[in-house]
Amino acid sequence: MARPRGPRFKVARHLGVNVFNHPKALKRGVKNHKLSDYGQQLLEKQKLKAYYGVLEKQFRRYVFEALKSRGNSGDVLVQNLERRLDNIVYRLGFGSTLRQARQMVVHGHILVNGKMVNIPSYRVNVDDVISLREKSRKNQIFADNFSAIQLNVKYLEKDVENFSGRLVRIPLREEIPVDLKDSKVIEFYSKN
């Protein structure tokens, strides 16, 4: 499974946004450069890829799927990325970071509607129940993460007693906690 590797905090400083949601990511100063229109589009694309930990080939598929959709392409793109299983597992608080959440999915700790799914890019549908496997509930790290991390999005529902959560509805673009101009990403790919 391919995934982004390398210096995360350096990437966050370059993008100027704490895309990894880590307290130390932006400790050092961020350099502000005057960017051309193309440079701004490229930066927004890199930001969105970093938020969700997606590589270029897979990201292009998400973009072209969004371009073919009926709704606002930028909104659809971010909504589809937000509904990735690894991201939902992270938002529910099973993992303290997106990388940890992805690892939990790949190692088979997560169930979707009672069935084990180990594909991080699996798209969660409305009313799908995401839960922690029975064996994995004994793992203290997972239990601590899930009970300690507060749910801060309205489109998810969390059931702490049953170690589960549910996608209540498709998230609205303004509810998704990513700081970027998705129209720039769409412009970047519309030229190609």
Automatic annotation (TrEMBL):
| Alphabetical list of Gene3D superfamilies matching this protein | Ribosomal Protein S4 Delta 41, Chain A, domain 1, RNA-binding S4 domain
Q: Transmembrane region positions?
A: none
Q: Name one GO molecular function term.
A: structural constituent of ribosome
| Record family assignment | Belongs to the universal ribosomal protein uS4 family.
Specify the protein name. Small ribosomal subunit protein uS4
Q: Which gene encodes it?
A: rpsD
Output the lineage of the source organism.
Bacteria, Bacillati, Bacillota, Clostridia, Eubacteriales
This protein's GO cellular component annotations are: small ribosomal subunit
On whether Hydrolase is a keyword of this UniProt record, the answer is no
One GO BP on record is: translation
Q: What does this protein do?
A: With S5 and S12 plays an important role in translational accuracy. One of the primary rRNA binding proteins, it binds directly to 16S rRNA where it nucleates assembly of the body of the 30S subunit.
Q: Which domain of life is it from?
A: Bacteria
Q: Which residues form the Small ribosomal subunit protein uS4 N-terminal domain?
A: 3-82
Q: Which InterPro entries match?
A: Ribosomal_uS4, Ribosomal_uS4_bac-type, Ribosomal_uS4_CS, Ribosomal_uS4_N, S4_RNA-bd, S4_RNA-bd_sf
Q: How does it assemble?
A: Part of the 30S ribosomal subunit. Contacts protein S5. The interaction surface between S4 and S5 is involved in control of translational fidelity.
- In its UniProt entry, the species of origin is given as Fonticella tunisiensis
